[in-house]
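Example record

The entry below shows one chain as it appears in the dataset: sequence first, then structure tokens.
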Amino acid sequence: MLNRREYLQLTLAAGAAFAWSPRLARAEAGKSPITRPIPATGELLPVVGLGSSATFSQVARSEDHAALTAVLRAMTEHGGTVFDTAPSYGASEEVAGRIAAELGITDKLFWATKVNVAGRGGGAADPAAARAQIEASFERLKKPVIDLIQVHNLGDVPTQLGLLKEIKAAGRIRYLGVTTTRAEQYDELARVMRAEPLDFIGIDYAVDNRTVEETILPLSQERRIGVLVYLPFGRTRLWDRVRGQELPAWAAEFDAGSWAQFFLKFVLAHPAVTAVTPATSRPHHMVDNLGAALGRLPDEALRRRMIEHVAALPG
């Protein structure tokens, strides 16, 4: 089996054509990317998108954005639309907005950004500062209407979610929500999910990080709240676990051709998940990730086998 590095021997510079591996070409033939409905409206989203933290953010801070141009082109040319960002991700929001405009894909993307000007420890947010941050996002993304804005890390939800409700009522955002990737905030997240009219939540979830399966994901189904998944690779944790390890042959039973697809398909197999947005600054990784939206997803028996397999790996 090919690992992530070997899976696609793909070269791409800005404006260049893709060189598909025969294996991926066969995998894509006759298949459309899996989509899931947003519970609030039924609008369909491709299940694999792109995040802009981590390496995307690092490259965005540089002067050469050719790789990010290639990544965004790769996503849209191969069926992805969901792009997740935040003002706190350095230059990611601004650079992505500019690149999308240059490529003419601004209106093809489902833009998800965030707001959080709350003080340390979740202190009170200045409403004027929060409003200014949101207005800056409109300018950076070059959109009169943003698809989704979420309160980042549950920062002063009464103030900042209240502001988002006002802006949604004015027709300037289509969906609103809250996010956290901190287990110690899950109880508060559940409280907000029960109390507020959320369209989305954003959470961390991975084959070796399944706490959200206990309460958060079932509650999202009960409350009909969409779920964006962050950190499906545990930042670099899962890559460290599988370094030097062969992808098991039985991964072919759910059409996973790389470790990235193995990890992403595990997350996507949960019915509460709307989309997953792994971050990358490399176009061949973007295409590899998009392969997780093709073909079959693991059933419950295979998911248990995946959990056991990863748990048995050294490290």
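Notes for this example: Residues 1-27 have pLDDT under 50 and may be disordered. The first strand starts at residue 35 and ends at 37.
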